[in-house]
Amino acid sequence: MAEAGEQENLAHERGQLVRDLLEGKHIIMETDRAAVMKSVKPKAQYHFLVLPKEDIANVTALTRDHLDLLDHMEELANQAVAKYSAFPLSNFLVGFKMNQFMDRLNMHVISNDFYSPLLRGKLQWNNFNTELFLNFDYACAQLCCRGFIEPMPAKKQHELSLSAPIKCNQKGCDFSADNFFAFKPHIGFHWEQRNLQTSEQYAEALEMLEKMQLDNPTGHHRNWRSARQQPGPMIHPAQGKQYWKQRGPSGFQNQPQKLQPKQEDYSAKPQEANGNAPGSQKHTPFKQKKWKPKPKNEKKEQEQEQTASPKAGAQQKEPSATKTVEKPSEKQAES
Ligand SMILES: [Zn+2]
């Protein structure tokens, strides 16, 4: 009886994608032939699934007649990457699992960082980084030449899923580990490198923008900036090792760490100028008032309030004097 219940549960689990498709859940793009979903258990920063509406069981059920449908699915995948990720297409793996568990054929479109708290074991890594993952182009080539895709024997599937050592997938890196928990921090290492590179490029771009703002006030830089505001990564890698926690998701959403000193400089300037240049401090009077411990003498408090409030009022009426300071703080708010 217990076994029958287990079978039922498995069957239910296998049918989840089809139910989601019929109910329109997690769908970000759809045509009459296929749909793109966000994976509910992403194994990387970006993980999409492209499902055909035709009831095709898995990759081995494809025939030459499906090549046109596959073209269409690939086109959708390209659009999803362009629209919903901050990475170029070259950072994605596109293909099928040879050991697919779910009922409906589903094409994975997954970023190659594999930086996700939901990537928890060797099997999941090997699913995407061994022969268990059939590259889209290779699948199409097989269909073109032979007209079918040969199923992988269960024994080979089993061996590959447990195969060791686990090898790094990043270009020029030959790191490997026998144990997934020894390997996982290495994924974080590459992620950090990538973020570092991004923040350096971002800092350089901002510097260029600053110059542009001075030389060319045409507003073109605004288009540039809004183009950077892509939808963020789907998950927040909040679990795992300590340094994973310290890091936010990448891309241009989160302020790159390298820029933080710059921001502090901007906010520090008005404080330094406090008293010397009355027009230049914007936030300081408000903050001082808020953080101050309660004075015992009420009269003193009233006097201080009286001296503080005209200052604040005067600053609000002096937009021209604060102009140079405002620009950096606007940037803080935008980023
Ligand atoms: Zn590596």
Question: What's the arrangement of secondary structure elements?
Answer:
Blueprint: H1 2-14, H2 16-23, E1 27-30, E2 34-38, E3 47-52, H3 67-84, E4 92-97, E5 107-111, H4 122-129, E6 133-135, H5 136-145, H6 154-162, E7 166-167, E8 176-177, H7 180-215, H8 220-228, H9 242-246, H10 260-272, H11 284-291, H12 298-316, H13 323-334
Helix pairs in contact: 10-13
The structure holds zinc ion.
Q: Could you please describe the fold and organization of this structure?
A:
There is one protein chain. By secondary structure, the chain is an alpha+beta fold. It folds into 3 domains: 2-177, HIT-like (HIT family, subunit A, 2-Layer Sandwich), CATH 3.30.428; 180-252, no CATH class; 260-313 and 323-334, no CATH class. The chain has helices at 2-14, 16-23, 67-84, 122-129, 136-145, 154-162, 180-215, 220-228, 242-246, 260-272, 284-291, 298-316, 323-334; strands spanning 27-30, 34-38, 47-52, 92-97, 107-111, 133-135, 166-167, 176-177. The strands form 2 sheets. Strands 1-2-3-5-4-6 form a 6-stranded antiparallel β-sheet. It is globular. 21% of the residues are buried. Residues 216-335 are annotated as: Disordered. Residues 324-335 have a biased composition (Basic and acidic residues). GO terms for molecular function: DNA 5'-adenosine monophosphate hydrolase activity; double-stranded RNA binding; mismatched DNA binding; single-strand break-containing DNA binding; single-stranded DNA binding. Residues 129-193 form the Aprataxin C2HE/C2H2/C2HC zinc finger domain.
